[in-house]
Write a structure and sequence with these properties.
Distance between the termini: 50 Å
Radius of gyration: 32 Å
Strand order of the largest sheet: 14-13-12-15-16-17-18
Oligomer: single chain
Number of domains: 3
Structural class: alpha/beta
Helix content: 25-40%
Shape: elongated
Length: 485
């Protein structure tokens, strides 16, 4: 068996979790008692004395006394959580604590508490046994300080106790399932106006400004906002309501933006079993036979260049970046005066997906914790299924926030009905999370993005590489490709 297969088998075995026992069960110590009990029968028959009979009788009922003693722990051992729900931000220090109480005057020296705690890398929580000894009326504290690397929802607490008697003959299970939910929020990134020009839609640059005097028609009336021109004030309505009312004009520009956050899993949790020849073939297809770049070469297996050590948390890592980039995109569009529809798949929702209409930054405040803690989804929750959720969006701009880019995603985006249609002032965007440190050959993947940008640009989609670490966009691959050509 190859070393890779051994590692894979080993890691699979480690993820099975602790073994479960029945509500009341015998341990290996019961064999020792059975041996002593059989020996007691022999000696009782040999000695034939009242004392030996008393000892044998005690040996017979002794385990049942221990069982009754151990069962009392079900009414005595308790877990106390400081709070049911807590909220923190990723990469910030977070203190968690819960307590295990013994409310009885009886001691319980051997307890295994199965607790769910953050892993050493704070990527997720795992169940592990903790040996506890509880004297009478005693408290055992479990506390630590961690930094959560990824946003999401984490459960910290106790699933069950296994209480043993003094001679470890009996094992009594106490199901607790008491948890404290930790909501880890991502950073709420803000793209500055200077950086916003790099990633903003061309509709803003090409269309008429809403405050210009080249109005086409009045679309609505609304309350006055700071910055609105006095010429837009509807004085007749304002005099009736005693509040400033302004006219909203339809200038023909795009005023709605759909932001689709793709948090689907694009990578397996373990490295694929590939040979060195397969990897060399991948490099040859992206660098050419002589090491030079092939302009039209597509990636045979786009997932291939990921570093082996990155597979364990790659999907969580990319989903984390997608959320932060989507949040920054929402805030950018709202600042531009757009009406934003934020769409994503969410297993917690009744319909399996969420779609929120946002008109101001204040509308986003209650949505932010829900979106920020959304779990990653399976590979079937693709972009084309996301877009099928929305209804009539003919004159809207589409923004796709993607964890990575591969041939299938490029094909789906190019084939979308609204990719080249919609408003003539609109150019849709595909923002892909750029994580070069996660790839074994980041240069090859960058070349793949540049090639893909050409095909997407022909379908009215501008490809953008986003970097949440700097809260900005690295560069617009479509513009870079045009300059090179």
């Amino acid at each position: 068996m190859s070393s890779r297969k051994k590692e894979k088998k080993k890691s699979t075995g480690e993820n099975k979790g602790p073994k479960r026992y029945r509500s009341v069960s015998l341990t290996r110590g019961a064999w020792l008692w059975l041996a002593v009990w059989l020996a007691g029968i022999v000696f009782t028959q040999m000695l034939r004395s009242p004392a030996s009979n008393i000892v044998f009788g005690f040996l017979t009922v002794f385990p049942f006394i221990l069982l009754l003693y151990t069962l009392t722990s079900r009414a005595s051992v308790r877990v106390f959580l400081t709070d049911d729900n807590k909220m923190t931000e990723k990469l910030k220090e977070f203190d968690y604590e819960f307590r295990i109480y013994n409310e009885s005057i009886l001691p319980y020296p051997f307890i295994e508490a199965y607790v769910v705690l953050p892993c050493s890398d704070s990527v997720r929580c795992s169940e592990r046994p903790v040996r506890v000894s509880l004297p009478p009326l005693c408290v055992y504290n479990v506390s630590n300080t961690v930094r959560f690397r990824f946003r999401g929802t984490y459960d910290i607490g106790v699933t069950s106790f296994y209480v043993y008697d003094f001679f470890r003959i009996w094992r009594v299970r106490i199901d607790v399932n008491s948890f404290e939910k930790i909501y880890v929020l991502p950073r709420r990134l803000h793209i500055d106006e200077e950086e916003s020009k790099t990633v903003s839609d061309s509709a803003k640059r090409m269309s008429k400004t809403p405050n210009s005097y080249e109005k086409i028609e009045i679309s609505d009336v609304r309350d006055y906002r700071p910055g609105d021109p006095l010429k837009s004030v509807h004085w007749k309505l304002s005099s009736k309501t005693e509040e400033l009312i302004v006219r909203d004009y339809n200038s023909g520009s795009v005023d709605s933006t759909y932001i689709f956050a793709d948090m689907s899993s694009h990578f397996p949790s373990e490295p694929p079993l590939r040979t060195e020849e397969e990897f060399n073939l991948f490099r040859k297809k992206n660098n050419g036979p002589e090491g030079g770049e092939q302009p039209g070469a597509a990636l045979a297996e786009p997932n291939l260049p990921v570093s082996d050590e990155a597979y364990s948390d790659m999907n969580e890592y990319l989903a984390d970046g997608v959320v932060e980039l989507a949040v920054a995109s929402v805030l950018r569009e709202l600042r531009d005066g757009k009406k934003v529809y934020l769409v994503w798949f969410d297993s917690r929702a009744e319909m399996g997906a969420c779609c929120y209409e946002l008109k101001t930054a204040a509308d986003f405040d209650p949505v932010f914790p829900i979106f920020a803690t959304a779990p990653s989804t399976d590979a079937d929750s693709s972009v084309d299924r996301l877009t099928s959720i929305v209804g009539d969006s003919e004159d809207a701009k589409f923004v796709f926030v993607l964890p990575t880019l591969d041939d299938r995603t490029v094909g789906v985006l190019s084939a979308l009905p609204g990719s080249s249609g919609g408003s003539t002032d609109s150019i849709n965007e595909a923002i892909v999370y750029h994580a070069p440190e996660r790839y074994a050959d980041p240069d090859a993947f960058d070349r793949y993005l540049e090639v893909s940008a050409q095909g997407l640009a022909e379908n009215g989609i501008r490809l953008i590489k986003g970097d949440p670490a700097t809260a900005s966009v690295v560069y617009d691959t479509a513009e870079k490709t045009e300059k090179k050509s």
